[in-house]
Amino acid sequence: MQMTFGWSSSVTLLFDFWNVHSPAGMVLSVFIVLLLTVLFELLKAWRLWLGSGVPLHQPADAVASSLSESSSGLETSPSESSLTPIESRPRTTNKWTLHVLQTVLHMLQVTLGYMLMLCVMSYNSWIFIGVVVGAALGYFISFPLVERMSCYGSLKE
To answer: What are the transmembrane regions (predicted)?
Structure first.
């Protein structure tokens, strides 16, 4: 087995049936690995979003204005407003179901992460580039969601 990065167009990825022997097959494999990496990044953001309780459909500036209106300095003191719970998710959500969903998403994320690691361990430079570009693209796509959560978290405090 090769233990240094190479630029070959033939590689076996993860399973015996994923055996690449042509440039077209390599392009397809890199594209598939790129999409799997984007999915990995989106799973991370989705799990963070589920745990944060930030409404996905509400813009960040609307969240900021509603928070500033609910805790104006004239009506309540800072100590009172910090003790007032801010509910962003309806109480009808079952916490147990949410925890099970987060657990399943975590299992998918870990499995996908290890599969991507094994793809990189094929020491094929094209596959490695596909994983890196997929991670960057996935983060770029999921960044607005992560930014909204961090904005909401800083306003909530």
So the answer is: 20-43, 96-117, 123-146
